[in-house]
Amino acid sequence: MSSKWNNHGLPFLPGNTFRDVTKSAFHLPQTLVYKNGYALPRRPSVGIGQEALFSEMLSQQEIDKLSLELADIAYESHDQKMCEDFIPAYVALDKKLLRFFAYFTEDVLYSSDEEYRVRPVVIYYYLKDDSMCIVEPTVKNSGLIQGKRLKRQRLTKNERGDLYLWKDLNLGIDLEIHGFKYHIIGCDDFTKEFMESEGIVLNDPEPMPEDPYIKRRHAPQPSYTTTPSTFNKTSNFFAMDGQVLRFYAVWDDTDSPFGDTRHVVIHYYLVDDTVEIREVHERNSGRDTFPIIMRRLSVPKKLKTGTFPSCSMEIAKDNVEEYYSPKDFQLGQTVTLLSRHFLLYDCDRFTKEHYRKNYPEMDMKPIELPKKAETLPEKKKEFPPYNGFGSLEDSLQNCLSLVPQPPKVNLLKMLENDHKVLHFSVRLVSPHPEDEDRRFTLSYFLSDDMISIFEKPTRNTGVIGGKFLKKTRVRKPGTTEENPEFYSPADLAIGNTIEVFSHRFVITDADLYVLKYLESISSQIPSHTLDSLRQKLGMGMTGNQPADENGEDRKPSP
Q1: What is the pLDDT of residue 374?
Q2: d(Cα 503, Cα 461) in Å, to the nearest integer?
Q3: DSSP state for residue 547 in the 8-state scheme
Q4: Are 557 and 513 in contact (CB under 8 A)?
Q5: What is the extent of the structural domain holding 420?
Q6: For a tag on the chain, would you pick the N or C end, based on fewer CB atoms within 10 A?
């Protein structure tokens, strides 16, 4: 604003002030400059509209002195130590948790055996976010729902909503969480070191109190009988639970009108001395097969003598003098279970080991089953003759099942030899003179042993080149459909004649890759095949590349 245009007699209001009409620049100067691709700050030398700044009116010495004084006020001395790298809490305390061992008591109602239970738990405290998780270790056959009692969450300790922190945890204290009182009795080594490093003195650990019911159950019980029993069902259940003896037997049912010999499996459960019999299902046996012949039960071996009519009354334990035991199952002998005769001929490994430890006098050696004289020889499967449509494997699947399935392939061979092809130059053997100039390329695919033939186009012959034979497995002449033999790389020697669906071809040349591949598997290739390839490729080598019949160099196929 020029001073000559100021009107000091007028108020400073819009319309009463005048701008310098000679001023033409009103832009804001840039304060950033780019150097080597980076934006750097730049001190402006002029203001808006190229006006002079207050800093430009000062001398350079005054500006330097003012900047040093401001730097001393804003920052400390340069002699201060470098600050350490800052590590956030969620990184330093990640996957670090405190583990406390505790227990709580649970009242038992309507029970004369126990008044309360002592249930141990483990309290996990996650230092990362001050959350807690309570897990009760599972005890086998306890009958209680155990596992995770409280999922991971942040817990409040009072009505004001204050959260539990690691400073509030110690040994010998009680934690009231959701109506349960957990008493902490111990912790692990990491928790102890962490609490002591933070200046918290832990109390002495306490032992886990014993459950009164478990203590009373393990205590020796007084005997009220003159002859105390050595069998304890409870201890036998914990010791023998899940242990089963397995025998392989033959059921001789030839006495019945339509009976036969059947293979069965006999299971003897050591936990309660029960026996179960299952039939082995055989395909196409022609009879209904029941999975269980005899359900699991205690089979009586000897009944007490009496006058009661056993045919009309159920057998009770008081009427049985002796049940079947493991000593009654001897390999090579016949055991009678509910009037059925079973010949034991083998057992599994666990059964043999059990008899070796507990019954060393019994010889559990498998026996061979006797062969039936009236057994007819197995007839050879006969299939309809091959009709020529499709491959032999595909046509055979129509005879094996009602719904044809694709034939099985060797996946490992397909993966190892994928995209590996052997190329040969072949000539058609024909009595017609116009076929002498026809040239073919035979490709042998190593992944599935298939052969394809491609005819090279030849000018002025009247024969259209192209695909002569699509990919298929070529069977050797003289072999049958029942036992076919297919061409392999061992049969593809220079000069050999192969017959492909009544067409005969003579192998005249091959790629250099063919020789390298066959030499890598020389143990599977006859020597005359390798010699023919070496002789042919060695005579026509030009710059390490084999030459074709016209003398031109060619590269080996990939």
Answers
A1: 46
A2: 20
A3: B
A4: yes
A5: 411-539
A6: C
The pair of structure tokens assigned to 236 is: 């036998």
The tokens for 313 are 């009354």
228 within a domain of the structure (yes/no): no
Are the C-beta atoms of 331 and 248 separated by less than 8 Å?
no
Q: Of 134, 135, 191, 132, whose CA–CA distance to 163 is shortest? A: 132
**Amino acid at position 229, single letter:** S
Q: 195, 161, 156: which is closest to 176 by C-alpha?
A: 156
Q: Residue holding tokens 């033999």?
A: 485
- Residue 15 CB partners (closer than 8 Å, separation 6+): none
pLDDT tens-digit map of 67-89: 565 555 555 554 455 556 777 88
Task: Give, in order, the Cα–Cα distances in Å from 340 to each of 45, 101, 266, 337.
Answer: 115, 58, 12, 5
Task: Report the distance separating Cα 557 and Cα 443, nearest Å.
Answer: 10
3-state secondary structure of 248: strand
- pLDDT at residue 323 tops 70: yes
CB atoms within 10 A of CB 347: 21
Q: What is the CATH number of the domain that holds 280?
A: 2.30.29.170
Confirm if 20 and 48 have CB atoms less than 8 A apart: no
Clarify whether residues 101 and 193 are in a common domain. yes
Please give the structure tokens belonging to residue 183: 């008493």
- Per residue in 224-244, is it b (16+ CB within 10 Å) or e — as a string? eeeeeeeeeeeeeeeeeeeeb
Please name the helix (run of DSSP H) or strand (run of DSSP E) that holds residue 67, with its range, or none: helix 60-74
Distance in angstroms (rounded) separating the CA atoms of residues 287 and 280: 12
- Segment 439-475, tens digit of pLDDT: 899 999 998 889 999 998 877 767 778 889 899 888 8
Question: Encoding tokens for residue 323?
Answer: 């049940």
Using alpha carbons, list the distances in angstroms from residue 424 to 404, 491, 519.
36, 12, 16
**Which alpha helices (DSSP H) does 337-422 contain, by range?**
349-358, 392-400, 411-416
Tokens representing 418? 């994928």
Please report which residue ranges of 410-478 form alpha helices under DSSP H: 411-416
Q: Residues 150-184: pLDDT tens digits?
A: 999 999 988 888 999 999 999 999 999 998 999 99
The count of other CB atoms within 10 Å of the CB of residue 532 is 19
Q: Clarify whether residues 262 and 352 are in a common domain.
A: yes
- Tally Cβ neighbours within 10 Å of residue 498: 19
369 in a domain, yes or no? no
Read off the DSSP letter of residue 333. S
Task: Spell out a b/e string for 266-295, using b for 16 or more CB atoms within 10 Å of the CB, else e.
Answer: bebbbeeebbbbebeeeeeeeeeeeeebbe
> Rounded CA gap, 113 and 219, in Å?
14
Q: How many helices (H) and strands (E) does the chain have?
A: 11, 22
